[in-house]
Design brief:
This protein has 9 helices and 9 strands. By secondary structure, the chain is of the alpha/beta class. α3 crosses α5. It is globular, with a radius of gyration of 18 Å.
Length: 290
């Protein structure tokens, strides 16, 4: 977890000089009930006269590393697709702390939705790799607690099941002495009994009905490809509207999603198209005329 000081709740500073000039990226601190404030970064701007998606986003890092800068590429893609993005620097601690903080940040975003994204803002979850797990788990929590209402969730190469043992995972870790995903799961779960908890391992959840519409994006050579597609299939079987796509190897997904130094990665245009289409598909229909 980052060692930089946490700003005061009312404090907001520009993330970079370029961001300060454009006013599109701002670091903030979110006050949480009965907890220390959590750092976050806002991306994008609400649209005038239109409903803007508001996305609560969680970065990757196999549960043991990463921060706001590592989530920058995905957050910028989401903002580029027309959303206001709240990227959350959730604590790198064992389950359930990241999930509880993530859910508290989601509730804060819901209360602030008009201020952040304008009237009629629709609320989404998003995350890549370990952040995809956090997003999916927070989505299950929101369903179980019947609040806040979600318009959708976006999972990019999500880590969903430590026991998957899929072909894509074996191929990705065949030449690695110590699998970083297995190590990350071990640190995150901390206790064997947590491996059966649906909030810790949403890929193994027995009940998937009534979750939000879902977009699942994976790379062709992605270690998480098979378990993510299996999760998408199970969501579909549970009656959840699901859109899934496998990006070609040339898109370099998901590797460049996690590299804050890569700037615009090769998959930006392709992923952006999927995001825009998903946001459009989850706009509620207009009520019939009176």
């Amino acid at each position: 977890m980052s060692s930089r000081p946490i700003p005061r709740p009312a404090e907001a500073v520009a993330a970079t000089p370029a961001a300060a000039a454009s006013g599109t990226e701002t670091d903030i601190s979110i006050p949480l009930p009965d907890r220390e404030p959590v750092q976050a970064r806002l991306y994008g701007q609400k649209a005038k006269g239109a409903s803007t998606p508001l996305v609560v986003h969680f970065h990757g890092g196999t549960f043991v590393s990463g921060g706001l800068d590592d989530g920058r590429n995905v957050a910028r893609m989401l903002a580029g697709a027309g959303a206001v993005v709240l990227s959350v620097d959730y604590p790198l601690k064992p389950f359930p702390e990241p999930i509880e903080v993530g859910f508290a940040a989601l509730e804060w975003a819901y209360k602030q939705r008009v201020k952040l994204a304008g009237k009629g803002a629709r609320l989404y979850l998003a995350g890549e790799e370990a952040g995809g797990n956090v997003a999916a788990a927070v989505g299950v929590m929101a369903r179980d607690r019947a609040h806040p209402p979600l318009a959708g969730q976006i999972l990019l190469s999500p880590m969903l099941d430590p026991c998957a043992g899929t072909l894509s995972l074996r191929n990705a870790s065949a030449d690695v002495v110590r699998c970083r995903w297995a190590s990350g799961w071990q640190e995150y779960l901390s206790s064997p009994m947590n491996a059966t908890h649906p909030y810790a391992v949403p890929g193994a959840a027995l009940r998937l009905a009534e979750l939000a519409p879902t977009l699942v994006l994976v790379g062709e050579d992605d270690a998480m490809r098979d378990e993510a597609l299996s999760f998408a299939r199970r969501l579909h079987e549970a009656g959840i509207p699901v859109t899934k796509a496998v990006l070609p190897s040339s898109a370099k997904c998901p590797d460049e999603l996690y590299d804050p130094a890569s700037g615009d990665c090769a998959c930006t245009e392709t992923v952006g198209g999927h995001l825009r289409a998903f946001f459009a598909s989850t706009v509620p229909p207009l009520p019939p005329p009176a």
